[in-house]
Amino acid sequence: MRKQGRHFLQIPGPTNVPDRILRAMDLPTMDHRSPEFGELGLRVLNGMKTIFKCSGPVFIYPASGTGAWEAALVNTLNPGDHVLMYETGHFSTLWKSMALKIGLQPEFLQGDWRSGADANAIENRLRDDTAHDIKAVCVVHNETSTGAVTPIDQVREAIDAAGHPALLMVDTISSLASIDYRQDEWGVDVTVGGSQKGLMLPPGLSFNAVSDKALAAAKTCASMKAFWSWEDMAGPNATGFFPYTPATNLLYGLAEAIDMLHEEGLENVFARHDRHAEATRRAVQAWGLEILCSEPNHYSSSLTAVRLPEGHDADAFRKAVAENFNMSLGNGLSKLAGRVFRIGHLGDFNDLMLAGTLSGVEMGLELAAVPFERGGVQAALSYLASEARGNAGGQEAAE
Amino acid sequence: MRKQGRHFLQIPGPTNVPDRILRAMDLPTMDHRSPEFGELGLRVLNGMKTIFKCSGPVFIYPASGTGAWEAALVNTLNPGDHVLMYETGHFSTLWKSMALKIGLQPEFLQGDWRSGADANAIENRLRDDTAHDIKAVCVVHNETSTGAVTPIDQVREAIDAAGHPALLMVDTISSLASIDYRQDEWGVDVTVGGSQKGLMLPPGLSFNAVSDKALAAAKTCASMKAFWSWEDMAGPNATGFFPYTPATNLLYGLAEAIDMLHEEGLENVFARHDRHAEATRRAVQAWGLEILCSEPNHYSSSLTAVRLPEGHDADAFRKAVAENFNMSLGNGLSKLAGRVFRIGHLGDFNDLMLAGTLSGVEMGLELAAVPFERGGVQAALSYLASEARGNAGGQEAAE
Amino acid sequence: MRKQGRHFLQIPGPTNVPDRILRAMDLPTMDHRSPEFGELGLRVLNGMKTIFKCSGPVFIYPASGTGAWEAALVNTLNPGDHVLMYETGHFSTLWKSMALKIGLQPEFLQGDWRSGADANAIENRLRDDTAHDIKAVCVVHNETSTGAVTPIDQVREAIDAAGHPALLMVDTISSLASIDYRQDEWGVDVTVGGSQKGLMLPPGLSFNAVSDKALAAAKTCASMKAFWSWEDMAGPNATGFFPYTPATNLLYGLAEAIDMLHEEGLENVFARHDRHAEATRRAVQAWGLEILCSEPNHYSSSLTAVRLPEGHDADAFRKAVAENFNMSLGNGLSKLAGRVFRIGHLGDFNDLMLAGTLSGVEMGLELAAVPFERGGVQAALSYLASEARGNAGGQEAAE
Amino acid sequence: MRKQGRHFLQIPGPTNVPDRILRAMDLPTMDHRSPEFGELGLRVLNGMKTIFKCSGPVFIYPASGTGAWEAALVNTLNPGDHVLMYETGHFSTLWKSMALKIGLQPEFLQGDWRSGADANAIENRLRDDTAHDIKAVCVVHNETSTGAVTPIDQVREAIDAAGHPALLMVDTISSLASIDYRQDEWGVDVTVGGSQKGLMLPPGLSFNAVSDKALAAAKTCASMKAFWSWEDMAGPNATGFFPYTPATNLLYGLAEAIDMLHEEGLENVFARHDRHAEATRRAVQAWGLEILCSEPNHYSSSLTAVRLPEGHDADAFRKAVAENFNMSLGNGLSKLAGRVFRIGHLGDFNDLMLAGTLSGVEMGLELAAVPFERGGVQAALSYLASEARGNAGGQEAAE
Lengths: 399, 399, 399, 399
Prior knowledge:
Chains A, B, C, D: Pfam families: Aminotran_5. Chains A, B, C, D: Keywords: Aminotransferase, Pyridoxal phosphate, Transferase. Chains A, B, C, D: Residues 64-324 form the Aminotransferase class V domain. Chains A, B, C, D: It comes from Denitrobaculum tricleocarpae. 4 copies of one chain form a homotetramer. The first copy, chain A, is of the alpha/beta class. Chain A folds into 2 domains: 8-15 and 265-398, Aspartate Aminotransferase, domain 1 (Alpha-Beta Complex); 20-262, Aspartate Aminotransferase, domain 2 (3-Layer(aba) Sandwich). Helix content of chain A is 44%, strand content 15%. Chain A has helices at residues 19-25, 35-52, 65-74, 90-101, 119-128, 152-161, 212-219, 230-237, 248-264, 266-287, 314-325, 351-367, 376-398; strands at 8-10, 58-61, 82-86, 105-109, 134-140, 142-143, 148-149, 167-171, 190-194, 206-210, 290-291, 303-307, 327-331, 340-344. In chain A, the strands form 3 sheets. Chain A has a 7-stranded mixed beta sheet, with helices on both faces. In chain A, strands 1-13-14-12-11 form a 5-stranded mixed beta sheet, sandwiched between helices. In chain A, strand 13 (327-331) and strand 14 (340-344) form a beta hairpin. Residues 393-399 of chain A have low confidence and may be disordered. At the A-B interface, helix 1, helix 3 and helix 9 of A face helix 1, helix 3 and helix 9 of B.
C-alpha cells in the first residue's frame, strides 16, 4: 500500500484537521477548576452560539454526536412520548432506533434515501395529530449517508402551518459550519452538532443548542438522565465551568476553530462548501455516474454520494483508491452498502485538495474497471477556474 | 500573576500529560472505518485488559468518567434495583446521586470522609439482606476528594463471606495505573476508569472493564440505554471498531500510554507512586499539618489531602500558590470546601517535580500566613534520597 | 487571498514536511553532552551514510546548504587553487561566485541553463590541464534552477579517462533522497547536501559526505576555516557528539527521516520521484508548454521548470496561483526571472498531491490568460493510473 | 535509569523550550520567497533589535553561536589584524582559538576563570597601544563555563578613557534575554548571540547585532567570507528575506519568543533571572560549597558554577543526578573538568522548577557522598518566599 505523502481523508467526517487546530490542542491540559479555564469555557460556550446562530444556551458534551442525540431526547421528552421522525437515510434511522431504545414511540415517515425530508408530508401528519400526541419532530439537516439536505425553514413552516406545538429537533452533525444554518431564525428547539466535521476538530465533542421552549420542556421532563442532564450543565456553564471533567484539550481546539471560522466569515465558509460541492457534482456528471441525491434542491454541500453502476462493488472501488492513492472515501451504509461511495468535501478544504480528491476517484474508477467517461476532473477544474475568475473580479469591484 | 516556566498541574487529575502522549495525539485524524483503525482499536481494547488485569472485555467510551459511572449502572441494573454504596467522600456521593437520578434505589453506608470503605460494614449489611434485594455493591477504590483507598480485596472477601450474589462495581478513576489494581483476582464485576489520571491522557475517554457475571446481568437488564450500551459496543469491538465515531486522537494517545506504562513496568509505576505519596506525607507531617485520611492503611498513593488549621482558608492558600508559583492544587469539595487542599502526585511524575510541588506548598503556606513548621521539603528530600540510594543498591545487587 | 485548507508548497524545496517529522522535532531539546545525545548522534551520522551510499564520514552542519558548499571548498582547497566548475544554472553560478569570494580561481565551463553538465567538455578541459593545476571539479547533480540533472557517473568516467587527479565535488541539495545517488560507486570526493528537500525536513541542516582522498587533501589544506572545519568535527563525531552546539531538534527529525526513507526503500523513493516527474512532463506537454530542460536524458525527477510563451510573465502567473489556489510554485531565477516557473514534486509527496498541484497550474494558466491547451491534468492522471495498474500487477506477481 | 516525568534540562543552555515555542515551530515550512515570509522576516529582524536594544541591523544566521563568532570577526577584521581578547574561561578561549584559525593575531589577557574581564587591564593595554594596532576588543559578557559576567559598560569606558578606536565585540550567547544588555547605550560594535539560551529556542540560529562603525569597517574588510557575509545579507534583509534558505521553522519560534519576552517585559525577565540566581547562590552557600565566581559583582544571573571539594568528582556527581533524578547539569569544561558543575537557571523558568533543580542537586550531593550541609533548598525557599511576599506588596503599592 502506498503511504507516502499526506493522506486524503475524504470521508464525510471526521475531516482533515488543520495544523492550527492540532497545535492548539497539543498544549498541556489545564486545571478545569481554575479561573483561566472559566475564561476558556465562556469563550467556547458563547462562541458556539455564533455558529448555531442562536441566543439560547449551547451545551457541550465530552462525547461523540450519538451522545448529543440522546441528550436532545432525554432532556425534553417523557417515556412513551410520540415523536415524528423522517427516514432520510442511515443516520435518521439510527436516531429513530435510539428513540425506541430509550423508551419513546417514534413514528417514522418513510423516505427513499435519495432526498431530504418532505415538509408537506410532515405538515400533513401533524395536521392529522389533532390531539397533539406528537411531542417532537426530529429531522436530519444533512443526511451523511446520502448527501441530501432537508430545508429546515420549510419544516418550520410546515409545523407552523399545522398549528402544532411539537418541538423541532434537528441533527446538524455533518452540516454545522459547512451549510447555512440558523437555529433562532428557523425556530429550532434543539440542534444536535458534533466536533469532527465542519468544525474541523477530531471527534470527541458534541452539542445541544437549546431554545427557551425546549428549556421549558426540560423542566417537566421525567426521563432518566444524569450525564446528559442540561439542568446539571446550566449552573456551572454560567461561569464557564462544567459539572464533570470536560475534554479540555478538545476545547482548546474548539476555541481555535471558532476563531478560524469567523476569520474566514461564515458566509464565505458556506460559499466555499457550495462551490466544492458543485464542482464535485460536475465531475460526477461528466463521469456519467449518478448522484445518489435525486432532488437537486436537496444537494448537500458537505458530501456527495455517488452510485456505482449495477454489478460494480463500491467497496472494491474504495479499496483500490485507498491502496493506490492513500485516500479514504466514505462507504455505503446499511442498504446502500457496496452500492455507493461518498466523497466528503467539507471542513478545512480548498480547490486543490478537491482536485486531488476527484483525481483519486477518477483514477480509482479506472483501476476498479468501473465503466465511466473520463473528464470529470477536467469539468471540475473548468468550473473552479471560472469561479476563481469571477471571484477575482468581484473582489476588484468591491475595492 | 507569574506565568513563566512550566505550570505545575498538581490537582489529582487531569495530570501533567507527557510530551510523548501529546505528540502521539497531535497527528491527523484517521478514517474510523479503515483497516488501519481496526488495528489501533484492537491494540487499545486488548491493551487496556493488561492495565485492568482482566480477561473480559473493556469498553471504551468517548466520554468522561461520569459517563462510565452511568454505563456501569444502566448496563447491569434494572429500574428500582437496590444498590449498596459507601460514602467515602464527594465522588462516592456523586455516584450515589447518579444512581438515584437514573431510577435506582441506592443505600448509602455512612462514612466519615477520612477513610476508605469499611469491609466489615459491607459484610454486615449484606448478611442482613437475606432476600438478596441488593443487586450491586459500589465502592470507590481511591476517593479523589479525600485521598483514601478502599481495599478492594477486603470488599470482595466481605461479599463472599456474606454469601451474597451482588455484583461488585469499583470506581478506579484516580487509581488506575497509579495504585495496584486487579480486576480478575479481586473478582470485580465492573470497573470504571478514566483517561486523565494515571493514564496520563487529557480527559475525554472512560472505561468499563466487565466480568462474565456482569455481562450475564446485562443480558436481562431492562434499563433504558443507547449511547452507553455494552451490547452495541461488543459487536464492532470484536474487530477493533466502535458503533459510533470514537475519539480517534485520544485513542492514539491511549495506545502510547499503554506502551509507556509497560515500558516502565506496572509494578514500578505503583512503587513510584507509593514513594511519592510517602514523601508527601513526610512533608505534611514535618509541617505539622494533618493528613485528611485518618487511617494509615488507606493512605492514597495518587493524592494527599491536607487539612488546614481552623480559621485558615484553604482556597486563599491555593490562590496564593497559583498566583505566585504557577501551580494548581486541588480544592476541598462540598463539605471539605475551604478546609482542605489536595496535592496530586500521580501520572507522569518524578522526584524533582514532587520536590518543586512540595516547595510550592511550603512557600504558599508562608505567604498565606498559615501556621506551620518549616522542613517539610527537607523531610521529603531526605526520604527520596534514601530511597534513591536503596534503589541504586538494589539495582547493583540484581546485576 | 484564499487561505483555507492545506497549503501546497510546490517549490523545489523546502518541501512539505510530513507530520511524523514535525512531531519528532516537536520534543524538548536535550542535553547535547548527555549519553542519550551520543546515541542520537551516532544514529544520524551513520544513517546518513546509507543515504549518500558512502563508507566515509558524513559531517552534519547546523547550517543551510550554502554553508556546506563553503565547507566543501575550504576543507580541501588552498587559496588560489584552480577549480573547474560547470554552469548548469543559477545555483552552479552561485557556487562559482562563492569560490571567488573565498579566494579560489574558478574556471566556469559555459552551459545553456537547459541541461546538465557535459562530461565530454569536462574531459577535454582536464586533458588540456597536463600540469594538473585544476584541483577540483565541481558540478551540481540536480540544478534546482532549471530541473536538469548531470550524470555523475559520466563525470567520473571523464575524469578517469583524462587521468586527472582532481577531486570531484557534487552538490546534491535538491536530489539527495529523491534521485539515485551513489557517493562511493561514482567516486565522489565531497558531496554537499541539505535537509529541506528530499530529506523532508525544514531547512537548517547541511552535509558533507567525504571520501578518503578528500580527507587526505584536508590534511594539507591551508584555507582559513573554523566553523566549517572537518578536523574539529571528526573527533567528537566518533562518539556521536559535535564540537559546538548542534541543531538538536532538527537532528530528531533527521533520525525520523532516515527511518522513513528506509521503510519505503530508497529504490522505491527514487521510482516514486521518477513517476511524478514523468506525469508532470506529460502534463506540460499536453498543455503545449515547453520544458526548460532540453535534454531528455537530463530530466530532473525532483522538479520541472516550465517556460512560458514569450510575452507572458511567469511571476504574474505564480501570483494568480498563490492567491487563488493557496499554492507556492518556484520562480525563475536570475536570467530566467519571469520566464519560467518551477514545479517541485519531491519529498513527502503522492499521486493526489501531484494531481492537486497540476490542477492548480492548469487553472492558474487559465486565470493568467496564458495560451495553453487543456488536458494536462488529464494526461497526468492517465499515466498515473496506468502506473498504478502496472504496480498492482507487479506486486501480485511478486507474491 | 529513572526516566519518568519531565526532564530537568538545567545545563546553561540549551534551555527548557516552552511548549508555546515548540508549537509555533511545529507548523508546515513555508515558501521562503513568498510575501508572507517577508512579513515574518521583517518581524524577527526588527524584533531582535528590541532584544539587543540597538538601532543598527541584526543579522540572523541559520547556524549555531560558533558561527556568529566567526561572522563577527570575518566581516570586520583583516588577515593579520591584532585583536585584544580576555580569558574569562573556556568560551573566551575558544573564541581566541577561532581568531587564530582564521588568521588574526589575538592577544589574550590572562584571567583566572573565576571572574569577568577586568576593565582596568583592558584600559592599560589599550593605552600602551599608541599605534592603534589593536583593531578590536573581544569580551564574553557572560562566560558560560564559569558563571562570571563582565560589566560591558566598564569595558566601554575603558576603551573611551584610553582614547582607542578599536571595535568592541561582545559575546552574549548565554546572557541575551536573561541579563540586562544594551548594545547602543554601551557602544558595542558587534554583539554575538544565539537562540538556545535566554531566547528559549532550540539551537540553530545565531545573531550579529552591528553598529555603524562595524558596518563601516566591513566595507574595507578583506577577510575571505561567503556564508557569513553581512553585505550579502543586508540587501535581502531590507525586505525581510535572506540570501540563502533560512531556518524557517526556527524563525517561527523566534517570532514567538520575542512576543513572549515583551509580554513579560524585558526588565521583569532580568529581575526573574536575578532572583533565581540569588536563590541558587544562597543554596550553594548553605550547602557549604564554593561558588566558582569569586567576584560577587560578576555573579551571573543565568548560571551558577559550583566547585566540589578536593577529591570529589563533579562528573560522578552529575551522573548520579542524571540517573536518579532525570536532570542534566552542566559539566566543568577543559581545566575545570571534574572540578565544577554548573546549574543553568535561565530561559523559561520559574520558582518551582528552580526548587526542583536545587532539590536534585542536594539529593545528588548526598548520593555521591560529597560532604555538604543540608539546608540549601530550605535557604532558597526562604528567599523565594520572601521575594514573593515583597512582590505582592510591591504590586499592591503600585495599584
